[in-house]
Fold each of these.
Amino acid sequence: MEKLSQLYEGKAKKVYATEDPDLLIVSYKDDATAFNGLKKGTIAGKGVINNRMSNELMQMLEREGVPTHFVSQLSERDTLVRRVSIVPLEVIIRNISAGSFAKNYGVEEGIVFASPTIEFSYKNDALGDPLLNEYHALALGLATKEEIEDIKRYAFRVNDVLKRFWLSCGVTLVDFKLEFGRTADGKIILADEISPDTCRLWDTATGTKLDKDRFRRDLGGVEEAYSEIMGRLEKNLEVTK
Ligand code: UDP
């Protein structure tokens, strides 16, 4: 399958048409942004890592009953995916307080929740991705009630599967963001990516951050953290397959 015209260029990926109208190619870049595009930079090798990590995790999720857009990895940076129309919601699951949760509610980072939280924000850069609840999403016509139910069920299932997997790697899954899409036949499937760009991952033993917070917060060792987390994943994939 070959790349035809470029359909879209996002912050971290480019999307291309293919000869099959139901399939697209996503190509992962090393570009990194934070704070709604205000902070820009490059993380060398990130595209290769995020492509491989996202594909491995999506295949794991498929085996565990979560439908995803993944079709096949084409090269280090390119992956064939099912074409969907993206539901304009960022779906965030949290196991431990961090980031905007800690800021918004005035608590420290690192509080372990008795059960995970879910929140939605409206995927709209011009508005700064405002938080909304499912009634707002319904009122705005962003998704139907049934779609929101599917999204919630899948999102918590993703959390169960990934939390367990990362734990086996000595990594704590703090929080993450998912995006879902609608297929041509109206099914909800997991889309976008699952990577250190979209998850908070802390070394369980030391608490060291192994994710994009190193870039956001200028903590240094960004590339090293991405390769460390990728190495952990590689080592433990065999165990779960
Ligand atoms: N996240 C993301 N894209 C966004 C916003 C958040 O991938 O546009 C991820 C982020 O990496 C973290 C989780 O969602 O794992 C929760 O992020 P939070 O709401 O705390 O926002 P942040 O502090 O990153 O602004």
Amino acid sequence: MTLDLFPDHDDGAGRREELAPGAVVLRGLALPQQAEILAAVDDITSRAPLRHLTTPGGFRMSVAMTNCGARGWVSDRRGYRYDALDPESGRPWPPIPEVFLELAANAASEAGFEGFAPDACLINHYEPGTRLSLHQDKDERDYSQPIVSVSLGIPAVFLFGGLKREDRCLRVPLGHGDVVVWGGPARLRFHGVMPLKAASHPGLGMRRVNLTFRKVG
Ligand code: MD6
Ligand code: FE
């Protein structure tokens, strides 16, 4: 259940739903740029292909990932970290496209975080059955900066918990074009994605693509 405090608020930038202090869903905010965003995702994945990373515990992640930006999030037997180079190719990650930077800054500003300039964009690719287990985003140096998360393609149920793993979770449906901004007192909340249900999206088919923008510092 999501709490919609301002159901009638729509200034053209998308309907706003507050999840908790510091966390807001901006419904449909990415829709106007969707074609440009999807073309940019195709370009990035042609240069830095999606891959299934291994967790430090030795498990293959069901989400396929790649990155763009000065820093890319990677995981292997040695741990989780940000790396300037794609370990598969040894080359820098592709740069963050201008359309991504504008959307991320605009979303952060809508949520009250001015001047957001991400240096990392993780691209997550889901298929039906794929899930992301409950975690905190804490591999970044600077927790004063928010995270901006853009959902595209088939719907997912986002689990939004508290500051302790055992805190109960809200279940937040996220659809094509929805943007979540997450910072301040919410920055270290546990969260995850439930296993995706089979569905098809007109542009993306049976896939969900999530972009998460961060300032790693
Ligand atoms: C996803 N998102 O939606 C995974 N993390 O596919 C995340 O792990 C996430 O959406 C921090 C803030 C927002 C997010
Ligand atoms: Fe996360």
